[in-house]
Design goal:
N-(1-d-carboxylethyl)-l-norvaline Dehydrogenase, domain 2; Rossmann fold; 19 strands; 2-enoyl-CoA Hydratase, Chain A, domain 1
């Protein structure tokens, strides 16, 4: 017997207990142990088998350490078929989670009991695949076609009470999973219950699968795994036999296994787990955090305060007047009200936070005892310096002083204090209580324990934290500035903002760059352009002013109701603003540019190439330590389609030599913008890719 599966005999019942911490993942030792346990129970004359998990869960899914490696016998589909075919009565007792292969094992047993807190699900689509061990064939037979389609295409986790109603489990009972499982098996034996293989149940009723397929494909913005899973469920309804349905599931599973989207999603999965693991922080303890300060109660500051309060931290919110402080409190209450409405917060918790955990203040003295303070004031260097001069004077020794700046130089901000070692950047993304990304910006003199504290805070706030160095825009906004400039160049040369937005949403972005600009506020980009012009643009740089004219007319996007698009109250999205194209056409005429047509493919290729090229500079300069840091930043902060793995993974899959060749070709028309990044040229010359750099850094 495998040590990962413990065998015990209690009367007529053989008990198979999974003992493969931390989550009883279905690695090869577990699979072999389950197979051996069923065979032993049959050989010894048991009448039933109980399968449960020791520790905190039933089988929580596949073993991620086996991803990308050749499969070892027994394969999970074969194991599930063997469990189901056993002449003994086989029962699963579920606690924790039964996810992916875990639920497929449970569905291959004849009966299922669960504790009330258990959750089940088939989340394989999030890894670019579909359930490949009978999940698309068995789940529709127990839960019905529509419920199975919902669970499989969304990958959502389903609570025990809902799973009971759907027929995924047969009973919910309080207690220890081993004890309730044994009692249930004995009850089944005593009542003479027969084996109940799901594969022998009638095929489920069909639905309009073509319509569902199109709907799921549209909802997934081009991600193919959920839509492909629809076709697998269709086989459960329409195939001549269960075995034929299983064969179709296997064919579709292998199609997805060989797809670039699967490679992209697996990369994103591992990159998210690697991004917060920094060698420089190994063994470094973060400072204690009990109370934090937030300066500025606008949308960003209120969002940061909300996230902190929801994580159990006390917050001192500093504003410059009682009126502004009251408005900040209202914003925070509104944010928390959303959590209250969704059931994430009870009324008692809401009241406790608003009455006792949140403190409003109008003077810096209120920050004298906070452990960390984050300023979220206007994006102006002089204003930031004034704030940090005050903080240096009033904050206790050891307090971490953080700036939420999106672009500005943290070294310059730190230099106005007597404690530059305590200063770092914490760049949140708006709305800060919703968006998952946090750039932890490390200045030249930032102490390691301060960096560790930034990461600890981010993790407590349930953020995905990325380490960034100091430069204009750090990782994300620096790259954004470049690919947005590429879009502006295409506008001057003949594309429209609306064609570009559509091409990029078709590619999989959540929004196109011009819709994003409207959402963020066109005044932000306007301020950046004015700052850069004041600092002096290179004479070779192509500049454009059509967007400035929108801002000069008071059109800042969604907040004013008009930008590249016109927005009406109560309606999602906007319609193209008819004032935009005349401004663009006038600038083309002024610059003597004859517009040409762009295909959607060329728009995507140029946009992505500019993104990758600048990202290669960011990695080459050490602003991002690894290509995967860029990928995680763009996925979580900039709406990059997760199923493409991030821009660096996309580039690897496209082929770096071809991208470099395109960049060199475009440099013939603009050798300033299209300068190949040295790192990109080096990798191509050496026949390597970005992922090689990730492996070296791990």
């Amino acid at each position: 017997m495998s040590e990962a599966i413990e065998y015990e005999r209690i009367g007529d019942i053989a008990v198979l207990a999974a003992n493969n911490p931390p989550v009883n993942a279905l690695g090869v030792d577990v699979r072999r142990g389950l197979l051996a346990g069923v065979e032993r129970a049959e050989a010894e004359g048991a009448k039933a088998v109980l399968i449960y998990g020791k520790g905190r869960t039933y089988f929580a899914g596949a073993d991620i350490r086996e991803f990308g490696k050749p499969p070892q016998d027994p394969w999970l589909p074969e194991l599930c078929a063997r469990i189901e075919a056993s002449p003994l009565l086989v029962v699963s007792s579920i606690h924790g989670t039964a996810l992916g292969g875990g639920l497929e094992v449970a569905l291959s047993t004849h009966y299922r009991i669960a504790v009330p807190s258990a959750k089940v699900g088939l989340p394989e689509v999030h890894l670019g695949i579909l359930p490949g061990a009978g999940g698309t064939q068995r789940l529709p037979r127990v839960a019905g076609t529509e419920a199975a389609l919902d669970m499989i295409t969304s990958g959502r986790h389903v609570r025990a009470d809902e799973a009971l109603k759907l027929g995924v489990i047969d009973r919910v009972a309080e207690g220890d999973p081993r004890e309730i499982g044994l009692a249930y098996v004995q009850e089944l034996l005593d009542s003479g219950a027969e084996r109940r293989p799901v594969s022998e149940m009638p095929a489920p009723a069909p639905v309009d699968f073509d319509a569902v397929y199109e709907q799921v494909l549209k909802k997934g913005r081009g991600q193919i795994s959920p839509a492909t899973a629809v076709r697998a469920v269709q086989a459960a309804c329409e195939a001549e036999s269960f075995d034929a349905g299983m064969q179709r599931e296997r064919e579709l599973f292998m199609e997805l296994m060989n797809s670039d989207q699967r490679k992209g999603l697996i990369h994103a999965f591992f990159a998210e787990r690697a991004v917060g693991k920094l060698p420089e922080l190994k063994g470094v303890e973060p400072r204690m955090l009990h109370q934090i300060g937030v300066i500025g109660g606008g949308t960003m500051g209120a969002g940061i305060a909300t996230a902190a309060l929801l994580s159990g931290l006390q917050v001192v919110m500093l504003e410059m007047s009682p009126e502004a402080a009251h408005a900040a409190k209202e914003r925070i209450a509104g944010n928390l009200g959303g959590a209250l409405k969704r059931g994430k917060l009870s009324q008692a918790q809401f009241d406790e936070i608003m009455e006792n955990e949140l403190t409003l203040a109008t003077g810096y003295g209120a920050l004298s005892n906070v452990d960390l303070v984050i300023e979220a004031v206007f994006e102006d260097m002089d204003v930031k310096k004034q704030v940090f001069t005050q903080l240096d004077a009033v904050c206790k020794q050891g307090a971490v002083l953080a700036s939420n700046t999106s672009y500005l130089d943290i070294n310059e901000i730190a230099a106005v204090t007597k404690r530059p070692q305590d200063v770092l950047g914490l760049h949140f993304f708006s709305p800060a209580h919703v968006m998952k990304l946090l750039e932890v910006v490390v200045a030249d003199k930032t102490a390691p324990e301060v960096v560790a504290t930034g990461f600890a805070l981010g993790h407590r706030l349930k953020k995905v934290c990325v380490r960034a160095g100091v430069c204009d825009g750090f990782i994300g906004n620096r790259i954004l500035s470049t690919y947005r400039t590429c879009a502006d160049h295409m506008i001057l040369d003949g594309a429209s903002p609306y064609q570009i937005d559509k091409a990029l949403t078709d590619f999989g972005f959540a929004m196109g760059p011009f819709a994003v600009a409207d959402l963020a506020g066109l005044d932000i980009g306007w301020a950046v352009r004015k700052r850069k012009r004041a600092e002096g643009l290179d004479p070779r740089a192509r500049d454009s002013n059509y967007a400035d004219k929108l801002c000069e007319a008071g059109h800042f996007g969604q907040k004013t109701g008009k930008g590249y698009y016109i927005y009406e109250a109560g309606k999602r999205g906007g319609v193209p603003n008819p004032e935009v194209m005349p401004l663009i056409e006038a600038e083309r005429a002024e610059k003597g540019i004859t517009p040409r047509e762009f295909t959607d493919e060329e728009i995507v290729r140029r946009y992505m190439a500019s993104m990758v090229n600048e990202a290669a500079r960011v990695v080459g300069e050490g602003i991002a330590r690894r290509p995967l840091d860029v990928d995680v930043t763009l996925i979580y902060g900039y709406g990059f389609p997760r199923y493409r793995g991030g821009p660096m993974k996309w580039a690897d899959l496209q082929g770096l030599p071809g991208l470099l060749a395109d960049i060199k070709e475009w440099a013939k028309e603009d050798d300033y913008f299209w300068q190949p990044a040295p790192l990109l040229e080096q990798l191509v010359a050496e026949g390597r890719c970005f992922d090689d750099l990730n492996k070296e850094a791990s």
